[in-house]
Amino acid sequence: MKKRTEWDNVRGRHEYEIAGTPDNRRSATPTLPGTLILVTMERISAIFVLCVLATPAPGADDSLSKARGLLLGGKYAEAAAIYAPLAMERPDAALGLARCLEAEGKADGAVETLTAVADDQAAVHAELARLAFERGDYEESLARCRNALKLDADQLLARWIRGELHRTAGQLDEAEEIYAELISYHNTHEFKKAESLRWIGLAVARYAAWNRMSGQFNTLVNDLYPAALELEADYWPAHYETGCLLLEKFNQADAAKELQAALELNPDAAEVHVAMARLAVAGRDFDQAVASVDRALQINPGLLAAWLAKADLAWSNFDTRATLDLLTKKALPLNRLSEETAGRMAACYLLLDAKSKPGQATRLTRLIGEVTGRNAHAGEFFSTLAAALETRHKHAEAIRFFRRAIGVMPRQVGPHSHLGLLAMRTGQESEAKRWLDEAFEIDPFNTRVFNTLGVLEVLDSMQTIETDHVIVKYDARRDGLLGRYAAKHLDVIYPELCRQFGYRPPEKPLLEIFNEANGHDGHKWFSTRMIGLPYLGTVAASTGHIVGVASPNESRAARQFNWARVLKHEFVHVVTLQQTNFNVPHWYTEGLAVYSEGTRRPQVWNELLLERVPRGELFDLRTINFGFTRPHDSNEWQMAYCQAELYVEFMLSLWGPTQQRKLLAAFADGLETDEAIRSVFHVSAKQFEQKYIEYLEELVAGMSQLKHPSGGSIAGLLQAHRERPNDADAAAELAYAYVLREMNQEALETARAALKLKAKHQLASYVIARLWLAEDRTGEAIELLEACIDDESPQPNALNLLAGLRLKAEQYDEAARLYALGERLDAVNLKWSKSLARVYLLAENQQKLAEVLARLAEADADDLTGRKKLAEMAMKRRDYAAAANWANQAIQINVMDADMHRIFAEALVNRHNYHRAIEEFEVAIELDPEEPFLRYALADAYIQAKLPADAQRVLEELLAIDPDYPGARLMLKSLTEDFP
Asked: pTM for this structure?
């Protein structure tokens, strides 16, 4: 078959430049400036792995063709059974058998099989060279390459491996020459084997990356690998290599399609499962990542890439020792010269040996010496080391090693973009711009770089406030007021947080508030600012140096939130992360951040605790970090935050507040969680966990004294009823399940049976009362409920139903009594408080309404409506302290609410805080310039502050707007008389 694409030779350094991508083909090209690309994948280097057998020559035995089909489809044992009898006679059968063995992790058997038939077979020597290269036996690999190329100078696999041997020895010019020769070979030859195009493709990818020819990746994706599939439709490595290239460009969607296509052809391609794991990690689906890695290892326990991926999962859980254990015991024996393995080990050594004295030889320095001794251009080693440190927020160290990667291997593409993104995370935006511009010039298809350059354009348009403590950037047109209030708020709380934790970061932290810009909403810009991709699932985040937040003011915001609370949470991260040199585990910094908010535990957390603590379905310190990074669902994510905060409460209750700083100091010293707990609390991690569980059990025991229905399935409840026919509770639970499913006749019969077993059974009575209400037998339902309710231990459904009927009958006192009973005995459930608020509102009991609204507001930090109502009610009863408090809290949710600024100002005037009141009146006027009362009230505040000239100015403005405003002229006249 004629080759599908030809790459034209051109003059100069890029002699082997590849033709561009035709129109209407899939491309990694970024969209127009200002547009965000919705992809989410970290760079994954193409891993050289299992290579499938080339197409048999015409006339090959049918049995070998069948075996090849089985091999390509992942039926390794069946294929091996066909290849094995022919292996000593047919080199192609020996190659097939070797690849079957290798695919299942039996590399030694593969080598033995091939060695027996090597002799004058160039393809067999090339395959042995590849196997030796992958296990780090470079001398053997070189010898086999030489043998292969003596026998066949055009043996493409041998030529590719020869180039890789030059690369790993630091002989970069020699390696590049071989890659170029492979490209040239493609331009002058026709191909009948899909596998040949694979070796050409790998050479093209390496040559293009080294020579900044990023556009040529489109040709690989759209021409070369599709050509391989035309030659052999079930050649799954073509899909695999395409997927790896797309992952390299963060094109998650297309990468997933290609990798899935590979798995459809070969469900047991272990390498593809590893790539799928890394794809899952990028999407924060860690459970899928674990499953994919486990599947890869089940297929091929000798696959280095799979063990590296498994080590990466342990690393992401802050388990450095487990990571190192996997690397040394599993990965290293597979290839003792792998720079990918060595780079990860170096990162472990850096963290574990943090206490080493300056100048002292360490495991890290020794390892660096070994690697650079073998390869003076060990860029892959330093890049891997830096990338690992980057994931653990070791920004300074990561920057240092990315710089070293560039120094030893300038041809590398990745470190430039990493340095730019790291500079963004540390708030060094000018430095970031320099690195990102350089990275974009090298590789214009890197989505995160492209998106982040767009963020820098947005940041350039922002206004900056620098206070004594912080720097705030914001959209002056849309968020001018929020920027000012955020800066003022942080100037108060940030020094307090520094005192609380006993540490002040050396540089002022940076807050950036994002609103709509260039056609995209603030949340997308915030997300892109933090991770380079536009869909981070929170409204705010911290890198430890900067805090980014999506503006609550923008019109497309999902909901308003308490920005003051959010900022306090994120600035706890700023302090604790820097205080511990980013060693603090995720659960502890989150726990401290939530605890520092000072708000009540949300109802959803209490519900989860009531459900999970009795069943023992809890995170522990080994698993809780994954609750933040790989939750199964939103409940798991909520549970991780809940438990993290309760770990802090537990430690404070048992050991006191001084231990908080000591634990942070232990993490700052580089201790892992188990060691830190033993050092600070003088108990083992196991004892610590046991005490924590006891604390949770005691907490849950006091949460609710009411017994709610189990909510089990009909089948399970029916089985329980049959097994315990004399158990009234079992019958009532079944009746309740029936009535929920509108199986009314069954519900009635079963509830009556329960009442025969136990008169006045509350749940059974509730079921019957509910059925009677459907028949308009309201009076009978009320009598039944009144007779059954036990005030000492009421059944919540019955209690709620009776209270609702009393409310409907406008019997407010009795309804309030019943709802208050529920609130007292079931305090974690806010439905009782909400119902009480409704009763007091209808009964016009302002005092009681204010009390219950305050409890509801405390339970929901983002509740704007309740706080506004409380502020208004406090002003009416002239409780100015309460009015100021609630109005200020409302402003911390919606800084654009003119009414709350007015109430806050009026309350401040009555508390004689005139200067602050003047500020609030001025803001209210800024928000509502057409309201004349605001200027009148502002003038009065100026008078009381003894600033008559300002009062006169404001009154003149008022009269210009409304010449007949009541009292304005009289006030102005009195001013001119009193202060001529």
From this structure: 0.82
